[in-house]
Structure formats: structure tokens, C-alpha cells
Amino acid sequence: MEFFERFAIPHPSPAIYASMVAIALTTIAVVVGLTYFKKWGYLWREWLTTVDHKKIGIMYMISALLMLFRGGADALMMRAQTAVPENTLLDAQHYNEIFTTHGVVMIIFMAMAFIIALMNFVIPLQIGARDVAFPRLNALSFWLYFMGAMLLNISFVIGGSPSSGWTSYFPLAGNELSPSVGTNYYMLALQISGLGTLITGINFIVTILKMRAPGMTLMKMPMFTWAGLITNVIIVFAFPVLTVALAMGTMDRLFATNFFTTTDGGMDMLWANLFWVWGHPEVYILILPAFGIYSEIIPTFARRNLYGYTTMVVSMVVISLLSFVVWVHHFFTMGQGALVNSIFSITTMAIAVPTGIKIFNWLFTMWKGKIQFTVPMLYSLGFIPIFTIGGVTGVMLGMASADYQYHNTMFLVAHFHLVIIPGVVFAMIAGLTYWWPKMFGFMLNERIGKWGFWFVAGGTVLAFFPMFISGLDGQARRMYTYSEGTGFGIWNMLSFVGAIGLAIGFALLVYNIYYSTRYASRDIGDDPWNARSLEWATHNPVPEYNFAITPQVNSSEAFWDAKKRGHKLFKAGYKDIHMPNNSGIPFIMSVFFFIFGFAFIFSMWITVIVSLIAILACMTYRSFEKDDGYHITAEELKKAESELRGAK
């Protein structure tokens, strides 16, 4: 009995019991559905074993949407708890768990997944490649991310969720103040998913540098590809820091190594520094792909070339460099002295300059353009003023002396969300809507999409603008309740109403997907947006081989120039194409990683050793496996292309 007690929830509540029932019923429904419709074989052949970058991108996207609603449910509960003074909807422990998992899920498992989803689907198409450089590693990247996400998400029904904040500061995250296994879940889930992200970074750097179409020099790459390249360089430099910090934290908790303790030679600020050496570049890992998305959408719907291509590239490079030298602004109030504060205050404000350059470039792109107010363009336009306000308040927080007033208040929460929501969520929905026809061969409904935009944009403003006021009035973040005499009630109620507006907007997105899947026309052609970059030069949806003939590129807007200036993209004839075979090894290996992580969390050392041996066995099998892939012959290509053109 003692063995099973370790899996119990330390602080159960009716909401957690309801979640257990919901998870069980959902699992049963999925298994029964797959069995009844005889889809197990299809699921294995087409999805679980796929190495196709497009399908992997779609799986990332589906996972990100699921995590959006998982993290969104946490957000609604937080806002409901603080909507009125002295509320008892949640107790302090449950609230702590919710704000912790909300941050981790939204940053690591929603936002990261969505940007990698779009990078997976779009970048190989934009550079004229058949796939990524290492297709099996790409599949392993996804499954490691997915298993890390599932590992964290079972924590609130098996053993208890982490409750020390998404930053997991020590000593709060140590065994003394966090005695349950919740923080173990945090450490292991992030290590497993982070390993997948690091592999993605290496994979896409090689893909972009080595697999571009003939004629596509670096300065002829589409802006989203540039953003992807710089983002993945940041990933390769930043994520090893997080991995090492998490490994040290895990050893502190399980083996009493005292890296981050406040006694026996430990240093709790070491964790804070390592976390933010990763954490602040992480913000730009999320934001730079969004900048790339907007740089594709705005020229398309303004019907103008992107203004200042070179300065856009240079500004992203500068942002990436500065992102590594601003992390200490998180410690302005922690006593490191005026000189250090001044240096990092300057670097923090300096990073606003290249970001401002990009905003002006987008505005100049739209100047005198023939703007079409499509759903992707509405999100791009809404992004500019809301993100600018979020950025300007970031500069305010970057003033070290003023930060003594702002730090750890709701003002900081408002700033962060007014950067991340327009900078990631708006871009996510804009990019999803923009490239949806390329993924599935039909368009999302514009009318429903526009309703969704107004709810999301209005909800964002209403949810977070009142926090500036309550924060300046002294409301600390992470407070689960407050007294009526503080005067915070009205601002928190407005935030709750705004959160409901956001929820309605996201619900409309889901309804739009359902409605459009059932009723949208499939006769939209290959270029429904009259777009500009290379991914629109192939069919909707994209065939497995991407391009029947390798394109020849002359500019950064190759497809637009082919349409308007007569540039010939496809000069050669049909040739045999080599393609990689599907493989079950990445999925199987990730399952063993899940077992390894779960066993490590609960100190089940025999299971840890067995699963580790299984992981090494998968790697050994792959090392000796002879798999030369398969070929699509020129005759098969010609026939497939003829059928695809005939279907339009």
C-alpha cells in the first residue's frame, strides 16, 4: 500500500476528481472509436510512423491547439478565482498549481509547438526542399515534445502538479518547500521535450543552410525562413543551458547534490541565472517566428513588396544577439548593485530599437498599399498597436529604478501577456488561417474568422489593460485572493470578462475548423491568396514529394515574380525523386523516454534502468539498420501531376 500512496494527489479537489473522470472517459472513447472504425492500422501507417515534415507539422499544430485549451482552462480558473474579493472557488495550493501549469503549458507546450508546427510545414516548401535534412530526427523531435507534454499533464491526476511557478525558483522548488513529486514532473517533462526542441534546432539549421533550391542565396530567402534560421540558432545556444539547469535541479531533489540549496555550499540564485539565460532568449524564440509570419502576410494582403528586406534581416540578427545579454533585468530588485543594473537596463532598452525598426517596416509596407482585410491581415494589423503597448511597458520595466515599483505586480503580468498574445497567439491564428489551404486544400470561413478576431483582440485588451492599473495600485501577482478594501475588485472583474471574451474567440476558431471542414469549397486552386513565396507554387494540399520539379529561384518573392515578371520557376523535366521511408522507431523510442521520465519522477530505479536500456537498444537498432528509402519514378510523377492538375 505504501508503494501506491506515492501516486496519490496531495491536495485533491472536486475539479481534479472531475478531471480524472474526463481523462478516463476520453481515453475510452478514443480507443473504442479507433477500434470500431478500424483505424488502428491507418493511425500507425499514416501518422505514428510518418517522417513527412508536413504531417509532423500538422501533429505539432493539433497538439498545440490541445495545449492552448488546457492552458486556457487554467487561465479561466485563475481569473474566476480573482474576479471577486475573498473568493473561495480555489484554495491556495490549487491556485499555485494552476498558475504554474498555465505558464509551463502555454510557453513550452503551446507556443513552442505552434511555431515549430509552422516551421515544419512551411520552411521546406519555402526553400524548395523535399523534406528536412534529417526526417527521422524530425519525427523523434515531435514525439519527444509530445511525451514531455503528456508527462506534465498527467501530473495533476497522478502524484500532483508542480506549484512553485513556471520559473520554479529555488528554494521554493526544493524538497523542503515542494515535498510532492510535482516539481519532479516539471524537471523531467521539460528535459524530455527540450531535447526534442534542441534536435529540431539542429535539423532546421542544416535544412535551411544546405537544402535551398538552386538560386536561393541567403539574401533571397523568404522572411519566415530567415526568422526560422535565426530562431533555431538561438535554440541551439539557449536550450542546453536549460537542460543542464534541469538536470542539476533534478539531482538536487532526488540525490541531495545541493546545487541550488541555501545551505551546504548551494546557491539558489544560480538557478535563477541559468533559467533566465535560457528564459529571455526563449521569449525571442517565440517572437521571431511571429515576426516572420507577419512579414509574409502583410506584403501579401497589402499587395506590395516587403519594405526594407535587408534591415528586417539585420534587425532579427541584432535581436537574437541582444536576447542573450538582457537576462539580469529579472533581478533588478535582488541586490546586485547600481552598476550591473545600469548595464542591463541599457541592453534591455536597446533591444527595443531593432524591434521598432520592424514595426516601421511593416507600416511602410502597407503605406499606399491596396490592403485586403482578410482574417490573417486583421490579426497582423491588430498585432501592431497591442504589441507596441506591450513593448513600451517592457521598456518601462527595463528602467532599473522604476522596476522597484513594477516588479512582481500585475503590471508585469499585463506587459508579458500583451507581448506574448499578439506576438505569438495572433501570429499563430494568422499563420494557421493563411497556410490552412496549403495544409488541407480548403479555406477557413472568413466570416467566422473575423468574429473570432474581434473576440480575441477585444478580450486581450479587456483582460490585461486593467492589470496595469491594479499593478500600479500594488496588486502583487500570484495572489490567490485579496480583501475588498484594496479596491482591486473592479479591475479583476474586468479581466475576468476579457478572459471570457478570449475563450469565446478560441471557441469560434474551433467551430470555424469544424464548419469549414464540412462545408468549405475544395475548388480554390493552388494560390487562393494571390501570395508571393515559393510554397504557393505547388498544389493544395501539398503532395508527398512537395515539388515535382525542383524550382529555380531568382528573388526573395520567387512565386510573385514568376506570376508578374515571367520568371520561369520549373525549368527542368521530371526526374526520379528519392524519399525516406516511414519508421516506427521515433515513436517507440519516445514511449520509452516517457516511461523513463515517469519512473525517474517516482524513483522507480529498476524501471529507469530497463527503459534506459530500451532507449539505447532503439539507437543501436537504428545504427545498424539498412534503409535506403524509396524512389518515385519520373513516370509516376508525370501521372500524379496530371491527375492533380485535372482535379483542380
Automatic annotation (TrEMBL):
Alphabetical keyword list: Cell membrane, Copper, Electron transport, Heme, Hydrogen ion transport, Ion transport, Iron, Membrane, Metal-binding, Oxidoreductase, Respiratory chain, Transmembrane, Transmembrane helix, Transport
EC code: 1.10.3.-
UniProt KW Protein biosynthesis keyword: no
Subcellular location: Cell membrane
Major localization class: membrane
Function: Catalyzes quinol oxidation with the concomitant reduction of oxygen to water.
Name recorded for this polypeptide: Quinol oxidase subunit 1
Organism: Virgibacillus dokdonensis
